[in-house]
Each structure stands twice: as C-alpha cells, then as structure tokens.
Amino acid sequence: MIMSFADAAGQPLILWSWVRGHGGLIFSLLLQHILLTGIAVAIGSAISLFLAILSVRYRRAYAPVTWLTGIMYTIPSIALFGFLVPLTGYTILSAEIGLVSYTLLILIRNIVAGIDGVPAEVREAAVAMGYRPVRLLLQIELPIALPTIVAGLRIATVTTIGLVTITSLITYGGLGRLILEGLQGFFPTKVVVGSVLSILLAATTDAAFVLLGRTLTPWARRKAATA
Amino acid sequence: MSHPDPARQAPPDPALDGVMIRLEHISKTFPGSSIPAIGDLSLDFPRGEIVTLIGPSGCGKTTTLKLINRLIEPTSGRIQVDGKDALEIEPHILRLGIGYVIQQVGLFPHRTIRQNIATVPGLLGWDRSRTEQRVDELIQLVGLDPTMADRFPPELSGGQQQRVGVARALAADPPVLLMDEPFGAVDPIVRNHLQDELLRLQEHLQKTVVFVTHDIDEAIKLGDKMALLNVGGVLEQFGKPEEILREPADEFVNRFIGGERGLKRLALITLAEIELDPGPIVSPPVDEAEARIVMEKHGTNWVGVVSNGNLLGWVWASDFGKREPLEERIQWFKVKLAPTNTLRQALDEIITSRTQVAVVCEGDRYLGMTTLEQIRAAVAR
Predict the structure, then answer these.
(1) Which residue is closest to A218 within chain B, CA to CA?
(2) Which chain B residues are closer than 8 Å to A125 by Cβ?
(3) Is A131 in CB contact (< 8 Å) with chain B?
(4) How far is CA B69 from the centre of its chain?
(5) How does pLDDT run across B192-230, given as a tens digit for each residue?
(6) N or C: chain A end with fewer CB closer than 10 Å?
(7) Shortest Cα–Cα distance, B62 to chain A (Å)
C-alpha cells in the first residue's frame, strides 16, 4: 500500500510560508550541494586524468584500472557509504570518498577513449615535426580528446549531484538533507523543495556542460556542421 | 622553450659535398619478424634535388623515408643528414629541421589553418610577428585562399588540406622535406595540379626532397633522381628518370616501369633541350616564287610567315596565285608551344595539326618548329 504524505500528515504538498521563511537555509543547502559535487568531481578528475594517462602510456594498466573502478561503480551507493562509516566515520570524508569513487569509471573511460580517438596520422605528424611526449599530450592529444572528456564530465557531474542527496544519510548531504528530514518528519514541503531543486540543479548543470563543450571546442562543432 | 634553429647550424662535412642525406649499409628488421624489411641499403640523396622512391609493396620505401627522421630506428647502419650523424642527434631536434608530409595529411583538427602552419615555428619559439609574417608568406606560396586561414581543417577539401600540409612542413624552412605519397588520396586532376605546384615551388626553394610514391608516372615526373627498390629494400636502380627509361638495369626495372617507355621519355625532355628548325618560312611581302622554293626544300605544301621575329601564321600552297594578296590568306597557328613544354606535348601537336609541325615561341618571339623526325632523333640519342 502506498501512503501519500498529504494523507499521512494531513498537510499540503508545499507550504509556501515555510519556504519563504527558510530562504537562507535552502540557499545554503543548495550551495553546499554544489560544493560537495564540485569537490568530488574535481578530485575525481585529477585521479582519473592520472590513471587514464597511465593507462594510455602503459596499456597493460588499463584492464586492472577499469576492473577496480568498475567494481567501485557497481557497489550500490548506500552499501558503499555503509562500508565507509566504520572506517572514516560520519564525516564529509566518507561522503567524498564515495562520491569520488563513482566518478572514476566514467571519467577514465572517456579520457582514454578520447585520447585513443586521436587519429594515428595526427599523432605521427606531430611527432615527426618535433613534438615530445608531454607537449604532445598537452597540446595535441588532450585538446583533441576534449569533446569526449567533457561528455564524460557531464555524466559524472550529473550522477554526482544525484548521489550527494544520498550522503545526507551520513553527513551534510546538501539538498538531500531537506529530503531526508522531510521524510523522517512527515513534512512534504521539505521533500518537495529538496527534490525539485536537486532536479533543477542537475538539469542546469547538464545544459551548462553542453554549452561549455561547444565553447571549448568550436572546431568540433564546425566539423559536425560540414559532415 | 626554444631550440637552436636547425637551418642555421654549422656548415656540413665537406666530405659529403653535394650530399644532403646519406644512408650507409642500413638494415632494418622489425620486432617479431624474421625477414628484414631492409637488408643492406646504401643511398645518397643529393642536396637540393627531388629523389623519388618507388617499388612494389614490401620494398621498404616508406620505411626508408621514416629512417631519415627516425620515426623508425635502423637495426644497423649509419644515417647522415646535412653532414651530421642523425643517430647522434636527439630525434626531436633532428625532426625540427625535416619537413614531413603524409598522404592522410594529419592536420591538427583543433587548430585553425593558420595555427597548423605555425606549428614548427611555435616549437622553435619564434616570436609572434615573425611567425605571422611567415604564415602569410606560406599561404601565398602554396596558393591557398587567405580567407581560409582562420578556418578549421575539416572545412577544407582534400587538395586544400594537402596544400596546408605542405605549408606546415615548409614553415621553418627546413632543408629537407620527406613526402610519403602526399598526393595519393586526391583525385587525378588535383594530383596533377599539386605535382606541378610542387615542381614550381622546388624551382626556387631547392629543398632536398625524398618522395615516396607507388605511381611510376609521378616518380618519373617529379624525380630529379629515381630510386627503384625491390622487396627487402634492394636497390635495383638509381639515376635520372630519363636514364632509367633509356637503359633499365634489368628485367625487374623494365617490367616495373611498364610500357610506353618511349612516350614516358618524351615527357621528360623539353623543347629547350633539342635543336629547333626554323622550318619553311618567308617574310612579308611574300614573294610567291621564293615561297615555292622554300616549300620544295622542306617538302611541305604550306609556308610559314615570319615578320620581325613574330610568327604570323602559314599560307597553303593552294592559295597561291589567287587575286587577293597572300597576306590575307594567312592562317593562325592555334597552338604555340614554349621551350618549357615537353617533346610529348610537341608530339601531340604534330599528330593533330594540319601542318604536321609543332611551333615553338617564347612570348611573341618565334624560335622554330619541330617535326616528327626531330623528336625521333632526340629519343634515339
């Protein structure tokens, strides 16, 4: 049997007076949500970039890297946070470890695919003109891989925004805190505000990445236009 | 980051005078293969000349090319580039002085045409204004439309992309240019055009060009020298295309250069290289009796009219004795060849024109004419 909040508590779905009176709280939770996501994606990107480049240079490393990050990605989020609490407690650290681990597989796969997608003749021409490995990576390979990398970042970030709500079970949790408190206290307004804002945040971020991708890679867009 | 400009280094070893690239007893066996791709190859590439490398697949022509800029390292042997031991120079420094053009072009898709051309100046640390100036110069040199400079490579046609490829290779004015089937992916008309442009560029650039091709006509047309390789990097013959066509070293070479050897040779000899005949000519006012003597001497039924060094045209013998002056009966030579045209073009003109001669002029000035007999004599030399 499904029981609606409105039935259970005899309350309307949204109480606008509560929303008006708690603007500061809602705004700070939104910021917290963005911050938790930002930290996770930034750290995840740094680790992924390192592991992806390692995998490209030493091909034998790629299988174990995808195997390990694949396992991390498979663990259900609540179970993972459950494993982490005994180790790192009810802390932001536990939350971020979990969040970061979910970004790795997507980001590493996209970076590797992006670099692999650099045409062999482009790489050969660059080397033949005097590029050395580091400069080749920074000026040729990564820029050409950028559309694929941005696509990976987009998925990873939107996924993380969703997962941050779950971290409310062990620590801050951004907008997830509103949802959790609303569920526990039979106060639908909090649930609605938390859900709607996290959905809006995810949708806005998604659109922002599409725009960012186009701005960073005008050449890729023109290619598509002529294709 | 800045590197010493390879074009401005010490003068070459005098022992290698006239030789830009020397391969000495090169062998190359790729890992995992028991048969060497190149067994024992020695080859000199003369300074300022185009050498075309040609042979069947597996002859190691591309491998040979890539040995020069060390994209492939030899198993044994010595390589000298501009008097220096190439195997002692750091590969990336060596490569800055060697232009590289490949069939798939390999332009950087994320950089504009201008940025692509500026690649090597960028690696060499040239300042902005010098680079800008050089890029503009190159866009003009290779015949690109300047409005394309700020576009991205995928927006260009195959032929235009390869022009950018050539401009990029020439950017820092390297003394050596390696070209691996650069015109293999464009259609025959564009290919022919790009070949002509390369020859035009080479006239004043005087680069040492190593040009790999599988197209025998291209090898003959472009090469100052031609190296014919057989499977395993065996050098079957090395020399001027004209020499190879005239005297193929063996049956392999003979089969490889294919049929129509005579015609192919005609394409290599220009009209400037043979002695032209003044032909049956008279000057106005035309005296009919004199004209008849000239025609008889040359065995023709027409006579050319030359006035002050200009060829006005010709008059048929059948038009003689008519009422109006002969000058009004003059027919134009529709096709006038230049001394830079080949005997093959002259032959074509001879067999299609009603006068059975090819007329050669430099600008307006009449130089002479050539006949089938003269062409046959030139080839029989």
Answers:
(1) B110
(2) 100, 102, 105-108
(3) yes
(4) 23
(5) 999 999 999 999 899 999 999 999 999 999 999 999 999
(6) N
(7) 13
* Chain B residues whose beta carbon lies within 8 Å of the beta carbon of residue A128: 69, 71, 95, 98, 100, 178
3-class state of residue A128 by DSSP: helix
Q: Which residues of B touch A118 (CB under 8 A)?
A: none
Span of B28-37, B144-153, B182-191, B311-320 with lowest mean pLDDT: B311-320
Q: Which of B206, B234, B268 is the last residue of a domain?
A: B268
Instruction: Check which CATH number belongs to the domain holding B229 and give it.
Output: 3.40.50.300
Boundary-marking domain end, from B233, B268, B303: B268
Take residue A25 and report the two structure tokens written for it. Answer: 């709280």
Residue B53: which domain range?
6-97+174-268
Q: In this structure, are B180 and B251 located in the same domain?
A: yes
Q: What is the mean pLDDT of chain B?
A: 90
What is the pTM for the complete model shown? 0.82
Kindly provide the ipTM of the predicted complex, given to two decimals: 0.84
The alpha-carbon gap from B235 to the nearest alpha carbon of chain A, in Å, equals: 25
Fold (topology level) of A32-226: MetI-like fold (1.10.3720)
